[in-house]
Amino acid sequence: MRQVDAVIRERLSSRVALIDQISRYIVGAGGKRIRPRLVLLFARALGYDGPDQYELAATVELIHTSTLLHDDVVDESDLRRGRATANAMFGNAASVLVGDFLYSRSFQMMVSVKNMRVLEVLADATNVIAEGEVLQLMNMHDPDLAVDEYLRVIRYKTAKLFEASARLGAVLGGAGAAVEEACADYGRSLGTAFQLVDDLLDYEGNSDELGKNVGDDLREGKPTLPLLIAMERGTAAERELIRHAIEHGEQQKLPDILAIVRRTGALDATREAAQEQADKARESLFVLPESEARGALLELCFRAVHRSS
Ligand code: GRG
Fold it and tell me: Is CATH 1.10.600.10 what the domain over 2-305 is classified as, yes or no?
């Protein structure tokens, strides 16, 4: 990961001072670096140890960073990675445009490994992520959203980049089609578990630990799984309160809604859904030979569910 960080730092450089300033601001704030870890671990689990793993791991982290810059503008968020968001510090225009710089820099990096399959994987993934965000936009303020539609959004907006990262590791490791699919399945399931927990932490998390504000999903009127389950299980009055809060983005109702999602067991049910996905991810790993890297991938299944940040 130190080598990945070195590649990231090097690739952030630009002749334009504001680009350097903003990109180093967000990247310097850290982040868990899960997606690049997937590239390295799958490559290693399959016996690859060449330099392209660092370039591709850095590429997926820059794609992720560019989506965060865009997402914080779309969501009007003001806290990320324990710091003021780039949009809060530098404004929306600068954030979107530096997001574009990082996104297009990631193209330069992916092309540099000269492998058509890599380009295909990342072109498809980024396209699906954008579709996911637009779908989510269409679903805002809709309390009647079906659970399957909600799951589709999280597969697209979050799990797809996990899937692509795992797949890239498999491609570097020269995996055959069946093994590559198993690695991709792992990424998809882990990414789904990860986003389910993200949605859960927006209700029961702690802003200091998370480094971002809790309650933002409610402010935006996002119908996430804790609310969908609470509406299904709650009384008519509770259902009506949640419906109204989703329709109008009533963040001031957070304490009432927290009480309902807790009482109805909606938070536990969301965690159980995440656990099922993590178990699925774990099962996908058994096509890989036993190794330290496979052990670390198993450990990530646990951490995706039992995390507070
Ligand atoms: C530029 C391809 C492109 C698309 C723009 C705005 C947008 C379309 C996509 C946003 C997708 C998005 C932010 C999904 C949420 C994913 C998510 C769970 C982010 C948080 O990931 P962590 O917890 O963050 O891994 P850290 O800070 O640890 O890196």
Answer: yes
At 259, give phi and psi (nearest 5°).
-60, -40
Whether 53 lines ligand 1, by a CB cut-off of 6 Å, is no
Ligand 1 close to Cβ of residue 19 (< 6 A) = no
pLDDT tens digits for range 192-240: 999 999 999 999 989 999 999 999 999 999 999 999 999 999 999 999 9
114: alpha, beta or left? (left if phi > 0; alpha if psi -120 to 50): left
Hey, what are 152's tokens? 């589709």
On average, the pLDDT of the chain sits at 97
CB 150 within 8 A of CB 224: yes
Q: Does ligand 1 come within 6 angstroms of the Cβ of 133?
A: yes
Domain range annotation of the chain: 2-305
97 lines ligand 1 (CB under 6 A): no
Q: For residue 100, which atom of ligand 1 is closest to its CA?
A: 1
